[in-house]
Design goal:
This protein has about 240 residues and is of the alpha+beta class. The chain is built from 4 helices and 8 strands, in the order ααββαββαββββ. Strand 1 and strand 2 (about 85-90) form a beta hairpin.
Length: about 240
């Protein structure tokens, strides 16, 4: 057998190149989809873990969560008359303007209030608490996973207002006691967060993905005024063991 008879033919070479080209096209076509699915799964995992973490921190009245100050970098309190109070928290460690985890929880627990000047909800910009540690570095803001958390806290209404008109004195007192000892928290998380510059929060944009968590807190809620970022604000905390 000569050397020429041992070589590949042009047909065999063409078939080999066709198989390789087909494999490359298939890989390049599926790779972006796989990366997108991996990214979506990672974000949903962080959102699920952070949602449970925030709700448990609020309902248990935790006061030693300074870990949150590395993740929450803006808090906005919205009022029903259309005004808002924005409190940035992107200051470096050691800056006196940087809010502690205790203060942040007090702001996030602000309840809804009636009246045109009452609180409507509290919005926080958060870097993934349960994500990689690099995401909580202020210098990694552009590449870190960020989301918007909307919190609504209100007294639990066991009876619609219209059904209390004919209640007796004892039943009405029970309803009032229930409202002062049972609260509902609704947490809506929206992501991803874009253009989230704390100096111009009105320019921020949020993606279409969202998830809502709800829980009920049994106990009382106490509050007191404190100075936050050179502003006198009320902070609210739950006491699950007191009624």
């Amino acid at each position: 057998m000569t050397r020429a008879e041992q070589a590949f033919t042009l047909v065999e070479i063409a078939l080999s190149l066709a198989v390789v080209a087909f494999a490359l096209v298939a890989i390049l076509g599926v790779l972006p989809t796989g990366l997108r699915v991996q990214k979506d799964n990672r974000e949903e995992t962080i959102v699920n873990a952070d949602g449970a973490y925030l709700l448990e921190a609020l309902r248990s009245g935790q006061d030693r969560l300074d870990y949150l100050s590395n993740s929450v970098y803006l808090v906005t309190i919205n009022f029903k008359n259309g005004t808002r109070r924005t409190i940035p928290n992107d200051w470096p460690a050691g800056d006196p303007r940087r809010l502690s985890g205790h203060s942040l929880l007090g702001l996030l627990g602000t309840p809804k209030a009636v009246g045109p000047a009452g609180v409507s909800n509290v919005v926080a910009w958060i870097r993934g608490v349960s994500g990689p540690a690099i995401d909580r570095d202020p210098d990694a803001r552009d590449v870190a996973f960020r989301y918007q958390a909307i919190l609504e806290t209100q007294a639990f209404l066991g009876h619609p207002p219209a059904t209390t008109n004919l209640l007796g004195t004892n039943d009405l007192a029970r309803v009032h006691q229930l409202q002062s000892s049972l609260y509902e928290i609704r947490l809506t998380m929206r992501w991803p967060l874009f253009r989230d510059n704390v100096t111009a929060p009105q320019n921020a944009r949020v993606g279409t993905r969202r998830r809502t968590f709800r829980t009920v807190v049994a106990g009382s809620q106490f509050y007191y005024p404190t100075n936050l970022a050179n502003d006198e604000r009320m902070v609210f905390y739950f006491q699950p063991s007191l009624y």
